[in-house]
Amino acid sequence: KESKQKSRAFSFPCMNRDKRQLVHEYAEHFGCESESYDSEPKRNVVVTALRDKSGVPSVSLVEYVGKQKKAPPPAQVSSTAAPKPTFTPLARGGSEPKIDWFG
User: Which residues on neighbouring strands pair with residue 9, listed in sequence order?
Assistant: First the structure.
C-alpha cells in the first residue's frame, strides 16, 4: 500500500549555527527542503522531504565529503626551533618566607 502523503517534515531540536549548516547541507544532498526558524539561542531547522523530489543520492555522503576541500595540515615545527618557556616568580620582592612543601 502506497502512502498518500506528498511530503514529510522533521523539526530538529535547537542547535548552534555550525550544526544547522550541516543539517542544511545534508538536506540538500538528499533533495530535501530545509529552513531555519526562531531566533538565537532557540533557532532550529525543519527539513521537509517531498515525494517526487527527495531520495537517496547516487553519491554516498562519504564520497561527497571526500570531494570537499580540506584544510591544509598544520605546519611542522622542528623541536630545535621551538622557543623555551619563560617562568615568572610568584613571590613579590623576596620578603615572604619560602615554604618547603616537599620537606
Answer: 48
